[in-house]
Amino acid sequence: MSYPRTRLRRMRRSEGLRRLVRETRLSRDDLVLPLFVVEGSRVREPVASLPGVLRFSVDALAREAKEVFDLGIPAVILFGVPDTKDARGSGADAAGGAVQRAVEALKSAEPDLVVATDVCLCEYTDHGHCGIVQGGEVANDPSLERLAATALSHARAGADVVAPSDMMDGRVGAIRSGLDAHGFQAVAILSYAAKYASAYYGPFREAAGSTPRFGDRRGYQMDPGNAREALREMRLDLEEGADALLVKPALPSLDVLAAARRAFEVPLAAYHVSGEYAMLKAAAERGWIDGERALDEALLAIKRAGADFILTYAAKEVAARLAP
């Protein structure tokens, strides 16, 4: 009877050996924490469908920024939740809006914390869509001006990165032109280049109050069946001036993320979205899975597929147990 000479198990026998040969590692440097910003004062309001996630008023963010920075998390991304909405999403680019004031507060509290901002209209429109609605449909080109104005308002407030998530054609070019024309050439664009029309966004829409009042977003967000189209979207966004690309949702799109890693040499991000996070939390609460291990495994898979950094609601939780 012959026995194998090559035994891969030899290097798995102990934690020390496994650490020595581990190919993919998750670090605090890989994490970006999404934050929801609301009007009012002294607000720290839990989001029911996202355990551990809060909505913050601007005055409550300084403490949160310190906690995030002290944990070694390098960046946050802000989502605004306004009190009033209209058809144009007028609050999106208001100089005194919650996101604009939050950017100023965060950069004042922790100047070295990278502050990114979501650029979209869905949280600010009374119809809940990501652009201007004309004739019952989301009109692409009229939406570009509003998106560019929103990004510019964030840059003026001090944002390091603007992240358009609307999926309008040409929005990266419009934003880049607007930023450059006003002296903000240094502000980076993280483009949600491959954002699928996914069932995994439900808890986010509750948190941000951005559920569409009619129809859905499949006319502008990507069809989940398409992978080659995602690479076309990414290539076009790079040509228009994007500095980094994002794939969303993360786990259902690992093949797209891996293909993008092979195709492009730019920074790649993935968004471990609200539904992905909420499912793990719900299963862990019921004792069906080891929540910490499952979460770490999910984020490792995203990193292994090619992400340079990950937007995740678990950033603080994960960072707290990672070695510095």
Any overview of this molecule?
The chain is of the alpha/beta class. It has one domain: Aldolase class I (TIM Barrel, Alpha-Beta Barrel), CATH 3.20.20. It contains eleven helices and twelve strands. The strands form two sheets. An eight-stranded parallel beta barrel has the order 1-4-5-8-9-10-11-12, surrounded by nine helices. Strands 6-7 form a two-stranded antiparallel sheet. Helix 2 crosses helix 3, helix 3 packs parallel to helix 4 and helix 8 packs parallel to helix 10 (291-305). The protein starts with 14 loop residues before the first helix and ends with a helix.
- The strand line-up of the biggest sheet is 1-4-5-8-9-10-11-12
The CATH architecture classification is Alpha-Beta Barrel
Q: Biggest sheet, in brief?
A: 8 strands, parallel, barrel
Tell me the strand percentage band: 15-25%
Look at the structure and name the CATH superfamily.
Aldolase class I
H/I helix tally = 11
| CATH-defined fold name | TIM Barrel
Q: What is the string of SSEs from the N terminus onward?
A: HEEEHEHEEEHEHEHHEHEHHEH
Radius of gyration: 20 Å
* Number of strand segments: 12
Shape: globular
Classify the helix fraction into a percent range.
25-40%
What is the class in the CATH system?
Alpha Beta
